[in-house]
Amino acid sequence: DAGVIQSPRHEVTEMGQEVTLRCKPISGHDYLFWYRQTMMRGLELLIYFNNNVPIDDSGMPEDRFSAKMPNASFSTLKIQPSEPRDSAVYFCASSLAGLDTDTQYFGPGTRLTVL
Amino acid sequence: AQSVTQLDSHVSVSEGTPVLLRCNYSSSYSPSLFWYVQHPNKGLQLLLKYTSAATLVKGINGFEAEFKKSETSFHLTKPSAHMSDAAEYFCVVSDVGGFKTIFGAGTRLFVKA
Fold this sequence. Notes:
The structure holds 2 protein chains of 2 kinds. Chain A contains no helices and 11 strands. Chain A has strands at residues 5-7, 10-13, 19-24, 31-38, 42-50, 53-56, 65-71, 74-79, 88-95, 105-106, 110-114. In chain A, the strands form 2 sheets. In chain A, strands 2, 4, 5, 6, 9, 10 and 11 form a 7-stranded mixed sheet that branches. Chain A has a 4-stranded antiparallel sheet with strand order 1-3-8-7, with no helix packed on it. In chain A, strand 5 (42-50) and strand 6 form a beta hairpin. Chain B is 0% helix and 54% strand. Chain B has no helices and 12 strands. Chain B has strands at residues 3-6, 10-14, 19-21, 23-26, 32-38, 44-50, 56-58, 64-68, 73-78, 87-94, 101-103, 107-112. The mean pLDDT of chain B is 90. At the A-B interface, strand 5, strand 9 and strand 10 of A face strand 5, strand 6 and strand 11 of B.
């Protein structure tokens, strides 16, 4: 398996622009998680899905952030409009329901820079 | 409420000497506990996890961790450090089912030749 795939790996944009980050979870995994990593706040869980349904979005910082999972193999995290303080590395992770549900497999991350 | 505290932001060891990365947790439940490693510009990789089956957990690359309920600790150890172990290490606690994960602030491990 190729693992969790994220694109793009790097994104540089200007303040006010819309940014879309993409994630393809490991095939067959039921859960998908979006995280943000910054020096100041460390790793934060933003939202997670189960079977394509958002379960907990309490970590989403503002209404500017939205996430969707239209099918089992694809999810997006959108920021509109973007701000410099959104600059961070965004990770996607997935896990498989069952005895090993709590083991999450992380993608390589998307480094976002908002100028 | 759950929380996790990594007691050292940086640890420096010489190659071939033991590694100890300290983690204390707080949880209302019987938690699942994890250690993840992140090499520069990479995603996180699972080192090991504790899920109440055994208090001493062995992971990849020679790492192990011991769950001590009385001390609410889950320290990560390795008998002999290798240069390739230089990375950032995260202690993680999760609720039942593992959906609400809380990451520690991370400990950066430096390995000197």
